[in-house]
Amino acid sequence: MRGCEFPREDPESCHGVDPRAPHRHGPLRIYGYMNLSSTGQMPEMEEVDTNESNWLAKRIALISFLSLVMLMSVLGNLLVMVAVCKDRQLRKIKTNYFIVSLAFADLLVSVLVMPFGAIELIHQNWIYGETFCLVRTSLDVLLTTASILHLCCISLDRYYAICCQPLVYRNKMTPLRVALMIGGCWIIPTVISFLPIMQGWNSIGINDLIEKRKFSGNSTVCVFMVNKPYALTCSVVAFYLPLVLMVLAYQRIYVTARAHARQINMLQRAGGAGNANSADHQRNHRMRTETKAAKTLCIIMGCFCLCWAPFFITNVVDPFIDYSVPEQLWVACLWLGYINSMLNPILYAFLNKSFRRAFLIILCCGQKRYRRPSILGPGATCTATQINGSTHVLNGCSSASKLLLWFCNTRPVPV
Predict the structure, then answer these.
(1) Domain-embedded: residue 210
(2) Are residues 200 and 336 in the same domain?
(3) Domain of life here (predicted)?
(4) In a domain, 368, yes or no
(5) Is the Cβ–Cβ distance between 112 and 139 less than 8 Å?
(6) What is the rounded average pLDDT of the residues 396-402?
(7) How far apart are CA 108 and CA 113, in angstroms?
(8) Is residue 58, in this structure, part of any structural domain at all?
(9) pLDDT tens digits along 140-154
(10) Three-state secondary structure along 149-187?
(11) What is the reported pTM?
(12) Based on the domain organization, do 344 and 382 belong to the same domain?
Protein backbone atom coordinates (compact mmCIF):
# COMPACT_ATOMS: atom_id res chain seq x y z
CA MET A 1 0.00 0.00 0.00
CA ARG A 2 1.36 3.35 -0.98
CA GLY A 3 1.92 6.04 1.50
CA CYS A 4 -0.50 8.90 1.78
CA GLU A 5 -0.04 11.88 -0.45
CA PHE A 6 -1.45 15.33 0.23
CA PRO A 7 -3.56 17.05 -0.70
CA ARG A 8 -6.25 14.35 -0.67
CA GLU A 9 -9.99 14.56 -0.60
CA ASP A 10 -10.12 12.18 2.39
CA PRO A 11 -7.05 12.54 4.56
CA GLU A 12 -8.67 10.34 7.24
CA SER A 13 -8.45 7.33 4.90
CA CYS A 14 -4.69 7.18 5.49
CA HIS A 15 -4.61 5.10 8.68
CA GLY A 16 -7.17 7.45 10.18
CA VAL A 17 -4.58 10.12 11.02
CA ASP A 18 -4.41 13.60 9.60
CA PRO A 19 -1.07 15.27 10.23
CA ARG A 20 -2.73 18.61 9.47
CA ALA A 21 -4.83 18.15 12.65
CA PRO A 22 -2.24 17.05 15.19
CA HIS A 23 -4.37 17.79 18.28
CA ARG A 24 -7.17 15.38 17.38
CA HIS A 25 -5.20 12.28 18.30
CA GLY A 26 -2.46 13.87 20.37
CA PRO A 27 0.47 16.05 19.32
CA LEU A 28 2.69 14.90 16.51
CA ARG A 29 6.26 15.68 17.58
CA ILE A 30 8.79 16.65 14.93
CA TYR A 31 12.54 16.52 15.69
CA GLY A 32 11.64 15.83 19.29
CA TYR A 33 10.52 19.42 20.00
CA MET A 34 8.17 20.96 17.47
CA ASN A 35 4.51 20.33 16.71
CA LEU A 36 2.83 20.99 13.45
CA SER A 37 0.79 24.14 13.59
CA SER A 38 -2.98 24.20 13.15
CA THR A 39 -2.44 24.97 9.49
CA GLY A 40 -0.31 21.90 8.98
CA GLN A 41 2.88 23.94 8.61
CA MET A 42 6.02 23.43 10.61
CA PRO A 43 7.03 26.35 12.89
CA GLU A 44 10.12 28.24 11.89
CA MET A 45 13.31 27.17 13.63
CA GLU A 46 14.18 30.84 14.19
CA GLU A 47 10.96 31.36 16.15
CA VAL A 48 11.69 28.40 18.42
CA ASP A 49 15.23 29.59 19.00
CA THR A 50 13.97 33.09 19.82
CA ASN A 51 11.49 31.76 22.36
CA GLU A 52 14.15 29.62 24.02
CA SER A 53 16.56 32.56 24.09
CA ASN A 54 13.95 34.82 25.69
CA TRP A 55 13.10 32.19 28.27
CA LEU A 56 16.76 31.68 29.11
CA ALA A 57 17.38 35.44 29.37
CA LYS A 58 14.43 35.88 31.74
CA ARG A 59 15.61 32.96 33.84
CA ILE A 60 19.13 34.38 34.12
CA ALA A 61 17.77 37.84 34.99
CA LEU A 62 15.54 36.37 37.71
CA ILE A 63 18.37 34.32 39.21
CA SER A 64 20.68 37.35 39.17
CA PHE A 65 18.12 39.60 40.84
CA LEU A 66 17.24 37.12 43.59
CA SER A 67 20.91 36.36 44.23
CA LEU A 68 21.71 40.07 44.49
CA VAL A 69 18.92 40.67 47.01
CA MET A 70 20.03 37.74 49.18
CA LEU A 71 23.73 38.61 48.99
CA MET A 72 23.25 42.28 49.84
CA SER A 73 20.91 41.40 52.68
CA VAL A 74 23.40 38.94 54.19
CA LEU A 75 26.42 41.24 53.86
CA GLY A 76 24.63 44.38 55.04
CA ASN A 77 23.12 42.82 58.15
CA LEU A 78 26.33 41.00 59.04
CA LEU A 79 28.23 44.26 58.76
CA VAL A 80 25.79 45.97 61.14
CA MET A 81 26.15 43.23 63.76
CA VAL A 82 29.96 43.16 63.54
CA ALA A 83 30.17 46.96 63.74
CA VAL A 84 28.25 47.11 67.02
CA CYS A 85 30.22 44.21 68.49
CA LYS A 86 33.57 45.83 67.67
CA ASP A 87 32.79 49.52 68.36
CA ARG A 88 32.56 50.40 72.05
CA GLN A 89 30.86 53.73 71.37
CA LEU A 90 28.09 52.07 69.37
CA ARG A 91 27.46 49.61 72.20
CA LYS A 92 26.77 52.50 74.59
CA ILE A 93 23.69 53.64 72.63
CA LYS A 94 20.55 51.73 73.59
CA THR A 95 18.91 52.15 70.19
CA ASN A 96 21.69 50.09 68.62
CA TYR A 97 20.60 46.99 70.53
CA PHE A 98 17.31 47.14 68.64
CA ILE A 99 19.24 47.63 65.40
CA VAL A 100 21.42 44.57 66.10
CA SER A 101 18.38 42.42 66.87
CA LEU A 102 16.72 43.77 63.71
CA ALA A 103 19.81 42.90 61.68
CA PHE A 104 19.79 39.37 63.13
CA ALA A 105 16.12 38.91 62.14
CA ASP A 106 16.79 40.20 58.62
CA LEU A 107 19.88 37.99 58.36
CA LEU A 108 17.78 34.93 59.19
CA VAL A 109 15.21 35.99 56.58
CA SER A 110 17.93 36.10 53.94
CA VAL A 111 19.43 32.76 55.01
CA LEU A 112 16.46 30.60 56.06
CA VAL A 113 13.55 31.98 54.02
CA MET A 114 14.70 33.65 50.81
CA PRO A 115 16.76 30.74 49.37
CA PHE A 116 13.91 28.23 49.49
CA GLY A 117 11.49 30.77 48.06
CA ALA A 118 13.96 31.53 45.27
CA ILE A 119 14.46 27.82 44.44
CA GLU A 120 10.71 27.23 44.24
CA LEU A 121 10.24 30.36 42.13
CA ILE A 122 12.94 29.37 39.66
CA HIS A 123 12.06 25.67 39.33
CA GLN A 124 8.29 26.11 39.81
CA ASN A 125 8.33 23.07 42.08
CA TRP A 126 8.57 22.31 45.81
CA ILE A 127 10.74 19.27 46.50
CA TYR A 128 11.22 19.41 50.27
CA GLY A 129 8.01 17.79 51.50
CA GLU A 130 4.89 18.98 53.27
CA THR A 131 6.37 19.14 56.79
CA PHE A 132 9.24 21.38 55.78
CA CYS A 133 6.77 23.50 53.81
CA LEU A 134 4.97 24.24 57.10
CA VAL A 135 8.27 24.91 58.87
CA ARG A 136 9.48 27.24 56.14
CA THR A 137 6.15 29.09 56.12
CA SER A 138 6.25 29.46 59.91
CA LEU A 139 9.79 30.83 59.74
CA ASP A 140 8.71 33.24 57.03
CA VAL A 141 5.89 34.67 59.16
CA LEU A 142 8.00 34.70 62.33
CA LEU A 143 11.07 36.43 60.95
CA THR A 144 9.33 39.01 58.77
CA THR A 145 6.98 39.91 61.64
CA ALA A 146 9.94 40.17 64.01
CA SER A 147 11.64 42.52 61.57
CA ILE A 148 8.56 44.78 61.44
CA LEU A 149 8.16 44.82 65.24
CA HIS A 150 11.82 45.82 65.62
CA LEU A 151 11.19 48.79 63.35
CA CYS A 152 8.28 49.77 65.60
CA CYS A 153 10.45 49.51 68.74
CA ILE A 154 13.13 51.69 67.13
CA SER A 155 10.55 54.38 66.43
CA LEU A 156 9.31 54.25 70.04
CA ASP A 157 12.88 54.42 71.36
CA ARG A 158 13.60 57.48 69.25
CA TYR A 159 10.31 59.04 70.37
CA TYR A 160 11.28 58.75 74.04
CA ALA A 161 14.83 59.96 73.35
CA ILE A 162 13.84 63.04 71.35
CA CYS A 163 10.36 64.05 72.49
CA CYS A 164 10.80 63.40 76.22
CA GLN A 165 13.24 64.89 78.70
CA PRO A 166 16.56 63.04 79.11
CA LEU A 167 15.63 61.93 82.62
CA VAL A 168 12.36 60.46 81.36
CA TYR A 169 14.23 58.60 78.61
CA ARG A 170 16.72 57.10 81.07
CA ASN A 171 13.86 56.00 83.32
CA LYS A 172 11.85 54.57 80.42
CA MET A 173 14.64 52.83 78.50
CA THR A 174 16.35 50.85 81.22
CA PRO A 175 18.38 47.78 80.15
CA LEU A 176 15.61 45.55 81.51
CA ARG A 177 12.94 47.33 79.47
CA VAL A 178 15.10 47.18 76.34
CA ALA A 179 15.53 43.43 76.87
CA LEU A 180 11.78 42.97 77.40
CA MET A 181 10.97 44.92 74.23
CA ILE A 182 13.43 42.87 72.19
CA GLY A 183 12.04 39.68 73.72
CA GLY A 184 8.52 40.77 72.74
CA CYS A 185 9.70 41.32 69.17
CA TRP A 186 10.53 37.60 69.04
CA ILE A 187 7.84 36.05 71.26
CA ILE A 188 4.83 37.72 69.62
CA PRO A 189 5.78 36.57 66.09
CA THR A 190 6.37 33.04 67.40
CA VAL A 191 2.85 32.96 68.85
CA ILE A 192 1.22 34.07 65.58
CA SER A 193 3.39 31.87 63.34
CA PHE A 194 4.45 28.42 64.54
CA LEU A 195 1.52 27.79 66.87
CA PRO A 196 -1.39 28.40 64.46
CA ILE A 197 0.38 27.22 61.30
CA MET A 198 1.67 23.94 62.71
CA GLN A 199 -1.75 23.31 64.28
CA GLY A 200 -3.52 24.15 61.01
CA TRP A 201 -5.64 26.96 62.44
CA ASN A 202 -4.95 29.14 59.41
CA SER A 203 -6.49 26.56 57.05
CA ILE A 204 -9.74 25.84 58.89
CA GLY A 205 -12.57 25.94 56.35
CA ILE A 206 -10.32 26.09 53.26
CA ASN A 207 -8.58 22.69 53.41
CA ASP A 208 -10.16 21.46 50.18
CA LEU A 209 -9.01 24.55 48.28
CA ILE A 210 -5.48 24.18 49.64
CA GLU A 211 -5.31 20.54 48.56
CA LYS A 212 -6.39 21.47 45.03
CA ARG A 213 -3.68 24.15 44.76
CA LYS A 214 -0.87 21.98 46.07
CA PHE A 215 -0.56 20.20 42.75
CA SER A 216 -0.18 22.07 39.48
CA GLY A 217 0.24 19.66 36.58
CA ASN A 218 3.29 17.57 37.38
CA SER A 219 4.57 20.10 39.94
CA THR A 220 4.05 20.36 43.69
CA VAL A 221 3.65 23.78 45.28
CA CYS A 222 4.23 24.92 48.87
CA VAL A 223 0.85 26.59 49.36
CA PHE A 224 0.20 29.01 52.22
CA MET A 225 -3.39 30.18 52.36
CA VAL A 226 -5.17 31.71 55.33
CA ASN A 227 -8.78 31.96 56.37
CA LYS A 228 -10.41 35.28 57.21
CA PRO A 229 -9.86 35.27 61.00
CA TYR A 230 -6.16 34.45 60.70
CA ALA A 231 -5.65 36.96 57.87
CA LEU A 232 -7.16 39.80 59.92
CA THR A 233 -5.47 38.88 63.22
CA CYS A 234 -2.02 38.29 61.74
CA SER A 235 -2.12 41.41 59.57
CA VAL A 236 -3.21 43.69 62.43
CA VAL A 237 -0.55 42.39 64.82
CA ALA A 238 2.25 42.15 62.28
CA PHE A 239 1.67 45.31 60.23
CA TYR A 240 -1.24 47.65 60.83
CA LEU A 241 -0.74 48.23 64.57
CA PRO A 242 3.06 48.75 64.23
CA LEU A 243 2.38 51.06 61.27
CA VAL A 244 0.06 53.27 63.33
CA LEU A 245 2.57 53.46 66.20
CA MET A 246 5.42 54.32 63.81
CA VAL A 247 3.42 57.07 62.09
CA LEU A 248 2.46 58.66 65.42
CA ALA A 249 6.01 58.41 66.79
CA TYR A 250 7.74 59.85 63.73
CA GLN A 251 5.14 62.60 63.42
CA ARG A 252 5.93 63.72 66.98
CA ILE A 253 9.67 63.42 66.33
CA TYR A 254 9.40 65.66 63.28
CA VAL A 255 7.35 68.30 65.11
CA THR A 256 9.80 68.30 68.02
CA ALA A 257 12.79 68.54 65.68
CA ARG A 258 11.29 71.58 63.97
CA ALA A 259 10.57 73.28 67.29
CA HIS A 260 14.09 72.58 68.55
CA ALA A 261 15.67 73.92 65.36
CA ARG A 262 13.78 77.19 65.91
CA GLN A 263 14.95 77.33 69.54
CA ILE A 264 18.58 76.86 68.52
CA ASN A 265 18.34 79.73 66.04
CA MET A 266 16.66 81.91 68.66
CA LEU A 267 19.42 81.16 71.16
CA GLN A 268 22.08 81.88 68.56
CA ARG A 269 20.62 85.33 67.94
CA ALA A 270 20.57 86.00 71.70
CA GLY A 271 24.01 84.56 72.35
CA GLY A 272 26.05 87.61 71.37
CA ALA A 273 27.94 88.88 68.40
CA GLY A 274 30.33 85.93 68.41
CA ASN A 275 27.52 83.51 67.65
CA ALA A 276 25.16 85.75 65.71
CA ASN A 277 24.78 85.32 61.99
CA SER A 278 22.73 87.16 59.46
CA ALA A 279 18.99 86.57 59.52
CA ASP A 280 19.12 85.05 56.06
CA HIS A 281 21.80 82.58 57.07
CA GLN A 282 19.84 81.55 60.14
CA ARG A 283 16.66 81.04 58.14
CA ASN A 284 18.53 78.98 55.56
CA HIS A 285 20.15 76.87 58.26
CA ARG A 286 16.79 76.24 59.93
CA MET A 287 15.18 75.29 56.66
CA ARG A 288 18.03 72.90 55.87
CA THR A 289 17.69 71.29 59.28
CA GLU A 290 13.93 70.90 58.97
CA THR A 291 14.20 69.63 55.40
CA LYS A 292 16.81 67.02 56.35
CA ALA A 293 14.67 65.77 59.24
CA ALA A 294 11.62 65.59 56.99
CA LYS A 295 13.49 63.72 54.27
CA THR A 296 14.93 61.20 56.72
CA LEU A 297 11.53 60.42 58.23
CA CYS A 298 9.88 60.27 54.82
CA ILE A 299 12.51 57.82 53.59
CA ILE A 300 12.06 55.58 56.64
CA MET A 301 8.27 55.51 56.50
CA GLY A 302 8.14 55.51 52.70
CA CYS A 303 10.36 52.46 52.29
CA PHE A 304 8.55 50.59 55.06
CA CYS A 305 5.12 51.23 53.54
CA LEU A 306 6.30 50.63 49.98
CA CYS A 307 7.79 47.26 50.86
CA TRP A 308 5.12 45.80 53.16
CA ALA A 309 1.81 47.56 52.45
CA PRO A 310 1.14 45.70 49.13
CA PHE A 311 1.59 42.30 50.77
CA PHE A 312 -0.58 42.95 53.82
CA ILE A 313 -3.30 44.64 51.79
CA THR A 314 -3.37 41.63 49.49
CA ASN A 315 -3.26 39.29 52.49
CA VAL A 316 -6.43 40.83 53.92
CA VAL A 317 -8.31 41.26 50.65
CA ASP A 318 -7.65 37.80 49.16
CA PRO A 319 -9.88 35.74 51.55
CA PHE A 320 -12.79 38.12 50.92
CA ILE A 321 -12.63 37.78 47.12
CA ASP A 322 -12.58 33.95 47.10
CA TYR A 323 -8.78 33.73 46.84
CA SER A 324 -8.72 35.09 43.30
CA VAL A 325 -5.50 37.14 43.59
CA PRO A 326 -3.10 35.98 40.81
CA GLU A 327 -0.10 33.96 41.90
CA GLN A 328 2.30 36.34 40.15
CA LEU A 329 0.98 39.25 42.23
CA TRP A 330 1.44 37.26 45.43
CA VAL A 331 5.05 36.48 44.56
CA ALA A 332 5.81 40.10 43.66
CA CYS A 333 4.31 41.42 46.91
CA LEU A 334 6.15 38.82 48.98
CA TRP A 335 9.56 39.54 47.49
CA LEU A 336 8.95 43.27 47.80
CA GLY A 337 8.59 42.64 51.53
CA TYR A 338 11.79 40.58 51.54
CA ILE A 339 13.62 43.51 49.95
CA ASN A 340 12.88 45.50 53.12
CA SER A 341 15.33 43.19 54.93
CA MET A 342 17.99 44.36 52.48
CA LEU A 343 17.08 48.04 52.91
CA ASN A 344 16.98 48.08 56.72
CA PRO A 345 20.79 48.18 57.15
CA ILE A 346 20.92 51.13 54.77
CA LEU A 347 18.08 53.06 56.41
CA TYR A 348 18.95 52.46 60.04
CA ALA A 349 22.71 52.15 59.90
CA PHE A 350 24.33 53.40 56.70
CA LEU A 351 22.62 56.79 57.10
CA ASN A 352 24.18 57.09 60.56
CA LYS A 353 27.62 58.71 60.62
CA SER A 354 28.87 56.61 63.54
CA PHE A 355 27.93 53.39 61.75
CA ARG A 356 29.52 54.55 58.51
CA ARG A 357 32.77 55.21 60.33
CA ALA A 358 32.63 51.79 61.97
CA PHE A 359 31.98 50.17 58.59
CA LEU A 360 34.98 51.92 57.05
CA ILE A 361 37.20 50.76 59.92
CA ILE A 362 36.03 47.15 59.39
CA LEU A 363 36.25 47.18 55.59
CA CYS A 364 39.55 49.08 55.51
CA CYS A 365 41.21 46.94 58.20
CA GLY A 366 41.15 49.61 60.89
CA GLN A 367 42.99 52.43 59.12
CA LYS A 368 43.65 55.34 61.47
CA ARG A 369 42.13 58.04 59.29
CA TYR A 370 38.70 56.53 59.95
CA ARG A 371 39.11 56.51 63.73
CA ARG A 372 36.52 58.41 65.72
CA PRO A 373 37.53 62.00 66.50
CA SER A 374 36.31 63.92 69.52
CA ILE A 375 32.64 64.82 69.13
CA LEU A 376 33.25 68.53 69.74
CA GLY A 377 36.71 68.73 68.24
CA PRO A 378 39.97 69.46 70.08
CA GLY A 379 39.69 72.02 72.84
CA ALA A 380 36.04 72.81 72.14
CA THR A 381 33.81 73.79 75.02
CA CYS A 382 30.14 74.58 75.21
CA THR A 383 28.05 76.70 77.46
CA ALA A 384 24.46 75.88 78.18
CA THR A 385 21.27 77.37 79.47
CA GLN A 386 17.98 76.00 80.70
CA ILE A 387 14.71 76.77 78.92
CA ASN A 388 11.56 75.04 80.13
CA GLY A 389 13.62 72.40 81.86
CA SER A 390 15.62 71.50 78.73
CA THR A 391 19.36 71.93 78.37
CA HIS A 392 20.32 73.99 75.30
CA VAL A 393 23.82 74.51 73.97
CA LEU A 394 24.77 78.14 73.36
CA ASN A 395 28.38 79.14 72.88
CA GLY A 396 31.47 77.42 71.57
CA CYS A 397 29.75 74.72 69.53
CA SER A 398 28.95 74.45 65.87
CA SER A 399 25.35 73.95 64.82
CA ALA A 400 26.09 70.33 63.91
CA SER A 401 27.53 69.68 67.38
CA LYS A 402 24.50 71.26 69.02
CA LEU A 403 22.08 69.07 67.12
CA LEU A 404 24.26 66.02 67.71
CA LEU A 405 24.30 66.64 71.46
CA TRP A 406 20.56 67.09 71.52
CA PHE A 407 19.69 64.02 69.48
CA CYS A 408 22.06 61.82 71.46
CA ASN A 409 20.97 63.28 74.82
CA THR A 410 24.59 64.04 75.65
CA ARG A 411 25.26 66.47 78.51
CA PRO A 412 27.07 69.65 77.40
CA VAL A 413 30.65 70.05 78.51
CA PRO A 414 30.73 72.65 81.36
CA VAL A 415 32.82 75.75 81.01
Answers:
(1) yes
(2) yes
(3) Eukaryota
(4) no
(5) yes
(6) 43
(7) 7
(8) no
(9) 999 999 999 999 999
(10) HHHHHHHHHHHHHHHCCHHHHHHHCCHHHHHHHHHHHHH
(11) 0.73
(12) no
